[in-house]
Amino acid sequence: MSIDFKPRERSAFDEISGISILMPRMLPASLPEKVGDIEFQYSFRRDGQDVGALGFLGTEELVEIDGRREWVYTLDLSPDIVLEEILRFKRAIGNADPDAEFLQGLAQGLVNAFAGQTSNVDDLRYVAIAHADDLARVGISVPDGPARLTDGSIVLADVLVAAHVI
User: Fold this and answer.
1) How many domains is the chain built from?
2) Model pTM above 0.85
3) pLDDT of residue 32
4) Distance linking the first and last C-alpha atoms of the chain
5) Is 166 inside any structural domain?
Protein backbone atom coordinates (compact mmCIF):
# COMPACT_ATOMS: atom_id res chain seq x y z
CA MET A 1 0.00 0.00 0.00
CA SER A 2 1.31 3.44 -0.94
CA ILE A 3 2.34 6.03 1.59
CA ASP A 4 -0.48 8.41 2.42
CA PHE A 5 0.44 11.33 4.66
CA LYS A 6 -2.65 12.83 6.29
CA PRO A 7 -2.56 16.32 7.81
CA ARG A 8 -2.27 16.63 11.57
CA GLU A 9 -1.59 19.65 13.70
CA ARG A 10 1.84 20.96 12.61
CA SER A 11 2.67 17.67 10.84
CA ALA A 12 1.56 14.99 8.39
CA PHE A 13 1.34 11.31 9.36
CA ASP A 14 1.42 8.06 7.38
CA GLU A 15 -0.39 5.37 9.34
CA ILE A 16 1.19 2.39 7.51
CA SER A 17 4.84 3.41 8.00
CA GLY A 18 4.26 5.27 11.26
CA ILE A 19 6.28 8.21 9.93
CA SER A 20 5.47 11.83 10.74
CA ILE A 21 6.68 14.76 8.67
CA LEU A 22 7.01 17.72 10.99
CA MET A 23 6.15 21.22 9.82
CA PRO A 24 9.50 22.53 8.61
CA ARG A 25 11.68 25.36 9.65
CA MET A 26 11.51 28.03 6.96
CA LEU A 27 14.51 30.33 6.69
CA PRO A 28 15.68 32.88 4.17
CA ALA A 29 17.98 31.08 1.74
CA SER A 30 21.61 31.63 2.73
CA LEU A 31 22.56 32.55 -0.84
CA PRO A 32 19.31 33.80 -2.35
CA GLU A 33 19.12 33.79 -6.10
CA LYS A 34 16.22 36.20 -5.97
CA VAL A 35 13.92 37.84 -3.46
CA GLY A 36 11.52 35.30 -1.97
CA ASP A 37 13.92 32.33 -1.81
CA ILE A 38 13.32 30.17 1.26
CA GLU A 39 15.12 27.16 2.66
CA PHE A 40 12.73 24.48 3.93
CA GLN A 41 14.18 22.14 6.60
CA TYR A 42 12.04 19.06 7.29
CA SER A 43 12.39 16.32 9.91
CA PHE A 44 10.91 12.84 9.62
CA ARG A 45 10.11 10.93 12.83
CA ARG A 46 8.88 7.46 13.77
CA ASP A 47 8.08 6.39 17.32
CA GLY A 48 9.58 9.61 18.66
CA GLN A 49 12.91 9.03 16.89
CA ASP A 50 14.42 10.94 13.96
CA VAL A 51 14.49 8.74 10.85
CA GLY A 52 15.47 11.35 8.31
CA ALA A 53 15.67 14.98 7.29
CA LEU A 54 15.38 16.90 4.05
CA GLY A 55 16.33 20.44 3.12
CA PHE A 56 15.73 22.27 -0.14
CA LEU A 57 14.93 25.68 -1.58
CA GLY A 58 11.63 27.18 -2.58
CA THR A 59 9.95 30.52 -3.01
CA GLU A 60 7.15 32.58 -1.55
CA GLU A 61 4.98 34.97 -3.49
CA LEU A 62 1.97 37.08 -2.59
CA VAL A 63 -0.75 36.96 -5.24
CA GLU A 64 -4.31 38.20 -5.48
CA ILE A 65 -7.00 35.76 -6.60
CA ASP A 66 -10.59 36.94 -6.93
CA GLY A 67 -9.83 39.92 -4.69
CA ARG A 68 -8.29 37.77 -1.93
CA ARG A 69 -4.66 37.71 -0.87
CA GLU A 70 -2.95 34.35 -1.12
CA TRP A 71 0.62 33.48 -0.19
CA VAL A 72 1.99 30.82 -2.54
CA TYR A 73 4.91 28.74 -1.27
CA THR A 74 6.63 26.64 -3.91
CA LEU A 75 8.73 23.71 -2.71
CA ASP A 76 11.27 22.87 -5.44
CA LEU A 77 12.26 19.21 -5.24
CA SER A 78 14.08 19.36 -8.59
CA PRO A 79 17.76 19.49 -7.76
CA ASP A 80 19.40 16.09 -8.26
CA ILE A 81 20.77 16.13 -4.73
CA VAL A 82 17.24 16.53 -3.29
CA LEU A 83 15.74 13.82 -5.49
CA GLU A 84 18.62 11.46 -4.67
CA GLU A 85 18.12 12.13 -0.94
CA ILE A 86 14.42 11.31 -1.30
CA LEU A 87 15.34 7.99 -2.95
CA ARG A 88 17.86 7.24 -0.16
CA PHE A 89 15.15 7.93 2.41
CA LYS A 90 12.78 5.59 0.53
CA ARG A 91 15.36 2.79 0.73
CA ALA A 92 16.21 3.54 4.37
CA ILE A 93 12.60 3.08 5.46
CA GLY A 94 12.17 -0.02 3.30
CA ASN A 95 9.43 1.41 1.08
CA ALA A 96 8.62 -0.74 -1.96
CA ASP A 97 6.49 1.79 -3.89
CA PRO A 98 7.65 2.71 -7.41
CA ASP A 99 9.94 5.75 -7.20
CA ALA A 100 7.49 8.15 -8.90
CA GLU A 101 4.65 7.04 -6.62
CA PHE A 102 6.81 7.42 -3.51
CA LEU A 103 7.94 10.89 -4.64
CA GLN A 104 4.35 12.04 -5.10
CA GLY A 105 3.29 10.57 -1.75
CA LEU A 106 6.19 12.19 0.06
CA ALA A 107 5.56 15.51 -1.74
CA GLN A 108 1.94 15.39 -0.56
CA GLY A 109 3.21 14.80 2.97
CA LEU A 110 5.56 17.79 2.72
CA VAL A 111 2.70 20.13 1.82
CA ASN A 112 0.21 18.43 4.17
CA ALA A 113 2.53 19.21 7.10
CA PHE A 114 1.23 22.80 6.72
CA ALA A 115 -2.47 21.92 6.36
CA GLY A 116 -3.27 21.95 10.09
CA GLN A 117 -2.49 25.65 10.53
CA THR A 118 -5.20 27.73 12.18
CA SER A 119 -3.60 31.12 12.78
CA ASN A 120 -3.19 32.38 9.21
CA VAL A 121 -5.07 35.55 8.25
CA ASP A 122 -4.45 35.07 4.51
CA ASP A 123 -4.97 32.01 2.34
CA LEU A 124 -1.79 29.94 2.07
CA ARG A 125 -1.02 27.58 -0.81
CA TYR A 126 1.84 25.10 -0.72
CA VAL A 127 2.91 23.53 -4.01
CA ALA A 128 5.62 20.86 -4.45
CA ILE A 129 7.17 20.73 -7.92
CA ALA A 130 9.91 18.96 -9.83
CA HIS A 131 11.14 19.35 -13.38
CA ALA A 132 10.70 16.43 -15.79
CA ASP A 133 14.36 16.64 -16.92
CA ASP A 134 15.60 16.36 -13.34
CA LEU A 135 13.33 13.40 -12.62
CA ALA A 136 14.62 11.59 -15.70
CA ARG A 137 18.23 12.35 -14.81
CA VAL A 138 17.92 10.49 -11.47
CA GLY A 139 15.91 7.63 -13.00
CA ILE A 140 12.41 8.56 -11.82
CA SER A 141 9.79 8.11 -14.51
CA VAL A 142 7.68 11.19 -15.06
CA PRO A 143 4.36 10.55 -13.31
CA ASP A 144 1.16 10.49 -15.33
CA GLY A 145 -1.63 12.79 -14.31
CA PRO A 146 -0.04 15.70 -12.42
CA ALA A 147 -0.38 19.18 -13.86
CA ARG A 148 2.48 20.38 -16.02
CA LEU A 149 3.44 24.02 -15.98
CA THR A 150 4.74 26.05 -18.92
CA ASP A 151 8.29 26.08 -17.52
CA GLY A 152 8.49 22.26 -17.60
CA SER A 153 7.66 21.81 -13.93
CA ILE A 154 5.36 19.06 -12.77
CA VAL A 155 3.07 19.73 -9.83
CA LEU A 156 3.59 16.75 -7.53
CA ALA A 157 1.33 17.94 -4.71
CA ASP A 158 -0.45 20.99 -3.39
CA VAL A 159 -2.65 22.08 -0.52
CA LEU A 160 -4.63 25.23 0.21
CA VAL A 161 -4.88 26.38 3.82
CA ALA A 162 -7.84 28.76 3.98
CA ALA A 163 -7.53 31.94 6.02
CA HIS A 164 -8.78 31.74 9.59
CA VAL A 165 -10.59 34.73 11.03
CA ILE A 166 -9.27 35.51 14.47
Assistant:
1) 1
2) yes
3) 54
4) 39
5) no
Is residue 90 domain-resident? yes
- How far, in Å, CA of 71 to CA of 127, rounded? 11
- CA dist 46 and 27 (Å) reads 25
Q: What is the pLDDT of residue 143?
A: 66
Other beta carbons less than 10 A from residue 61's beta carbon? 12
Residue 114 DSSP class: T
Three-state secondary-structure class, residue 132: helix
Rounded (5°) CA angle 60-105-110: 30
Task: Answer whether residue 30 is part of any domain.
Answer: yes
CA distance 147 to 132: 12
Q: Based on C-alpha coordinates, what's the Rg of the chain? A: 15
Cβ atoms of residues 129 and 76 within 8 Å: yes
**Coil vs helix vs strand at 136:** helix
User: The domain containing residue 55 runs over which residues?
Assistant: 5-161
What are the residues facing 68 on neighbouring strands?
Answer: 65
